[in-house]
Design a protein that fits this description.
The complex is a heterodimer of chains A (273) and B (544). With 273 residues, chain A is mostly beta strands. Chain A is 9% helix and 41% strand. Among the domains of chain B are: 77 residues, no CATH class; 161 residues, no CATH class. Classes of the chains: A mainly beta (273), B alpha+beta (544). Chains A and B meet through α2, β4 and β14 of A and α1, α4, β3 and α8 of B.
Amino acid sequence: MQTHAESATVVRKPQREAPPGTARRRSAWCVRLVGLSTLAVGMALPFTADAAKVKGAVKNFRLLVNPVWEEAKSPKQHGYSFREPVPTVRAEFRRLFPDIPKELCIAALAPEKQKPEKPILIRVGGGRTTPVTIVLPPGTTLQFKNTDPFTHRLYGVKISTFQPNDTVKGGTRSWTVPGKGTFEIRDELAPSLRMWIVGEPNVAAIAYPSKKGQFLLTFDQPGDYTLQAFFSGKKVGAPKPVTVGQKDMDISRTPIRVAASKKKSKADEKKGK
Amino acid sequence: MLLSRFWYVLLALVLGGAIFVLFLATSMYNRAGARNMGEGLSADSQVVAWYLKNDARSRSAQLIKFALDPDVAKYLAKASANEQKVPSAARDKVRAALQRVSEKIAKDENFDAVFAVDQNGRVVAFLGYDQASGMEHFQLGGYPVVADALHGYIRDDTLVLDRLYRVVARPVEYDLGQMPAGAIVGARIIDDRFARELSARTGAAVAFYAKGQRVASGAPEGFDKSQLDQIVGDLENLKTDKDYQQKGRSNVRTISGLLGVVYARLPGEAWQLGAGYAVGRLPYHVAGPLGFFNKADDVDKKNANLLLVALIALFAAALGILFTLFEHTRPLHVFRTEAIRLAKGETDQMQPSKFRGVYRKIASDLNDGVDQVAAKGGVPRRAADLKQVMGDIPDQPQMSAFSFPGDPASSGPESSPQPSAPSRPMPSAPFQPSAPSHPKASTPGVPDATQASPGAPPRRPPPPNRPGARGDSEADEWRRVYEEFVATKQKCGENVEGFTYEKFEQTLKKNRDALVQRHGAKRVKFSVYVKEGKAALKASPIKA
C-alpha cells in the first residue's frame, strides 16, 4: 500500500510491549513498504488498518559525508590514478553526501523494549548493502542476499559470530543481532562495502527518507516516541519526541536536522575559539 | 732453451691472466646485467603505471560521447526521478543509445562494458556485461568511482569483481542546475588481450594478479611469458616486503634463479585487495667465461678486432716457433748431423763445442762412451783438434810445434810460423797403449783441463786400465812424437837440420806447462799433423 507517492519511505509498524493501561497489543513487527521498492521484498509485513502514520522530514542531510567515499577520495588511499571535477557540475553537488534512502535511518524509539519478530532482508550488491545503516531490536535476524553476479565474503568487524564466509551469486546468509550496540559488517572482497547495524532494544519503527528528505513512519500503537536519525552507525541530529495518536500526523514542518548548518557550524567554531 | 722456457712461462702467465680477466669480466658482466635489469624493471613498472593512467584518461574522454547523447541524459534523469523503479522505457532508450554511441567508437578505444547509472546508483542499462542480464536490482552506486561520478567527478578505479576491471566514470548532466542525472561507467577487462596490448605499447613483460592468482600476462617477442606464472609462488612473500606494503612497489626481486620481477599495486580498490601487476625481465647473464661465445651476436663479432687478434696470435706463434727452432730444432739438427758424421766415421768423436746446452753434455758423454769402448779394445781414435775440443776461446791452445799462443819461444828462430787451424784434423799416428798409470793422471786435486774450459762439458778420465795411457812414459811418448814430427817434416820437404830432440822436448815442456797451468789438465798429449803443407803439432790437454 503506497500512501506517499513522492516519498521513498519505509515505514515499519512495530508491535511494542504494551505499556500499562494500553488496550491494543500487536503480535509482531510490521514492516511496510511505502514507495521504496528496493526494501519491499524483505521488509514487507502485514499492515494493520488502524496504524497511525507520521510524516516527517530531515534537513541538512547534504552536509553529511559518506565515510567510505570520503575516505576513498584521499590520495593516501591510492583509490585512483586521477580524479578531476567536472566544471559544469555545481560545487554544492560535489560534496560526497550520502544516498539517504539507503544510508540515513530514522528510528522511532519507544520507552519500552521491543520484541524482535521476522527476519529482515539485506541486499548486498553494487558496492554496498541496502540499507547501509539499520536500527533493530537485538535478536532480529538479518538475511544478507547477494544480488551481484559474483561472490561476496561478508564478515563482522570484531564479531565472533560473523566470520568471513563466501556468499555466492543469489545466495543468502543469516545473522542475528546479538545485543545492544553498533555492529559493522564488511566484505573482504569489496572494501567499499560497509554496513552498520545498530542494536537498539527500544526501536519501534524505522524509516528511510526519500531523496528529498521526507519519510513516513507507521506506528501500531499510539504513544510517546522519540525519533532519532542514524547515519553510519551513529546517531546524527537531535532526538525528536513525538506523540502518536490515533490519527496520522505531519511533522515535516519541523524537520529533523541531521547535521548542523554551515553558518551555525562556523558560529559554533567561533564561539569555541 | 732459455728463451723457449721463458716464452712458455710468459704464455702461461698471459693465459692465466686472460682466464682471470674472463672470470672477472663474467662477474662484472653479470653484475652490470643485474643492475641494468633492475633499472629496466623500474622503468617498466613506471611505464606500465603511466600507461594505465593515460589509457584511463583517454578512455574517459570517450565517455563524453555517451554523456552527451540526448537520450542517455534524458532517460537517466527520468530514471533518477523515479525512486521506486526504473521505467522500462528508460532502460530501452538508454540501452539503445549506449549501443548507438558504442558503435561509433573505434575498436581499440572502446570499452568491454559500459554502464549507465542513475542517481540512485541503479544500473539503468549496460553493454557487454552479460553476467548481470536479467538482474532487476543490479546497481553500482556504492562504489566510490560511481559515487564520485554521480557527484561530478571524473576518475578511474580498478575493481576486483568477478574479474579484474579498469574502470572510468564521469557524470551525465541533463539540467545544469541540478545534480547530475546519472553517471556513465566504462570498464575494460584486464585479461590477456589487455596485457598483450599493454606489452606491445610499452615493451614490458607484464602480468596482472589478483586474489593470489595470475589473471593476465603479456610479453614482447623473445620473452617466454609463461615464466611470469612463477610470480604466483612469490606473491605470498610480498606480505613481508616493506616497500611493497608501504609504497605500493617492490624492489627488484629475483625468482627462480634469474627472473627479475618488480611488483606494483594497481590504483583503486584493487590496491586494498592486493591486486597488482608485475613486470619481469631476464638479466643479461653468462653462465661462465665461455658463455660469451653464445651471447655474442654478429654485431659483437663484427666489432671485435679479429685482425689484431690474429696478428697477436701469429706473432706469438711465430716467436714461439722461432725460439723452438733456435733452441730446439737447430741444435738437434746439428747434433744429428754430427751424429751422422760420427756414424759414418768421418769423425771419431763428437765435438762438444758445436753444441749448446744439453747437447753439449750429451756429446761429451758420447765421447766418454766412445773412449770407454776404445779402452776396452775398440778402434783407435784420432786426437781431437784442440780448437774443436775447446771451442773458440781467447787463449786458443791450438799450436804448432814451435808456435804456441803466448809462448815466448814461438818468436825464436827455430819456431815456424803459427799455422792456421785446419778445417779437419789430419789423421794422427795410431794409438799406442800407454802405461796403465800416468803420474799426473792420478794426481789428486788437479783440475781437469776440460772443466776449466768455458763451455766445454767435463769428460770423464780414461779408465785406469787403459792400455798405452799408463804403459808409456811422457818421455817415450814425446820421443815417438818427435820422430813422427821429424818424419812428417821430411815428407813435407822441410829442413830438419839442427832440429834436435832436446829443443823439441824443451818446447813441449813449456807448452805443456802453460797448458796445464791454463787449463788445469793432468797432462797434454801431442800429435803430429800436416797443416798447409807443413808439419804441425797439436796439443791436446787430457784430464787424468
